[in-house]
Amino acid sequence: MDKKSLSERDICTKFISPAIEKAGWNKLIQIREEVTFTDGKIYVRGKLTAREAQKHANYILYYNPNIPIAIIEAKDNKHSVRAGMQQALNYGRILHIPCVFSSNGDGFLFHDRTATGENLKTELENIHSDIQNIDNSFTKFEEYQCKTIGQLCDVIKGNTGIKTAIDGVYPLVTTAEERGFHKSFQFDAEAVCIPLVSSSGHGHASLKEYTINLENLR
User: Fold this and answer.
1) Of 183, 170, 167, 181, whose CA–CA distance to 217 is shortest?
2) On the CB side of 144, how many CA atoms lie within 13 Å of its CA?
3) What is the per-residue pLDDT for 57?
4) Does domain 3-144 have CATH number 3.90.1570.30?
5) Facing residues of 30 across strands?
6) What CA–CA distances, in Å, run from 5 to 9, 32, 76, 77, 82?
């Protein structure tokens, strides 16, 4: 069998999936394949609309149910083992997953997003055994768990909109580049975290930080 004649799906079935299972991952509760995680963007031009392709990961491995720990991006054997790494890194950032792999059926390239310096990437030549050697990296998930904003602070919706604000001395934080002002304030605390999602509909987000001494404004 000419390995380079195999499709990406064949490479997954014949080489990557067996290696993952041989390394001790439970295919029923820890492995998901062809996972779609975003709808494609919708582009509108006049009366015409078009949707960008959905994003999907070839494999997502789970540390515990509902806690993803690794992404594996597969390519056919005409590509190098490194060919899927940038795509996998992008998916890892979107999904907040720390361990990222690329494979073409000959081996794995492993990128540890929790590491620094020379330990970021490791190339694993033996697909059937060497993947076991990186299992220790997955245990670092205990130190890397992502938290939601709601776990870190109280989430309270502001009750003053741009159009209803009455000009005053207190800062009104909005998605606009320029800071607005209002005649009264809603929050009085040591720190306020304000995530802002763009109203453009493209999911753009930013985080603005303001240091304000309310005592000086009263």
Assistant:
1) 170
2) 18
3) 92
4) yes
5) none
6) 12, 25, 8, 8, 19
Q: Using CA atoms of 32, 35, 37, 39 in order, give the dihedral in degrees to the nearest 10.
A: -160
pLDDT at site 118: 56
What is the reported pLDDT for 33? Answer: 94
Integer CA distances (angstroms), 105 to 75, 108, 179, in order: 8, 8, 53
- Cα 13 to the chain's mean position, in Å? 26
What pLDDT score was predicted for residue 12?
95
DSSP assigned state of 161: -
Report, as ranges of residue numbers, the positions in the chain whose pLDDT lies below 70.
Answer: 39-44, 46-47, 49-52, 115-149, 175-177, 190-218
Which pLDDT score is estimated for 217?
53
CA distances from 189 to 2, 153, 157, 217 (A): 66, 12, 15, 14
Which residue, 127, 122, 128, is CA-closest to 99? Answer: 122
Domains of the chain, residue spans = 3-144, 148-218
Nearest to 33 by CA among 49, 45, 21: 21
And the tokens for 217?
Answer: 């404004």
| Distance (Å, whole) CA 64 – CA 62 | 5
Tokens 């620094």 appear where?
Answer: 116
Nearest partner of 210 among 182, 190, 218, 176, judged by Cα:
190
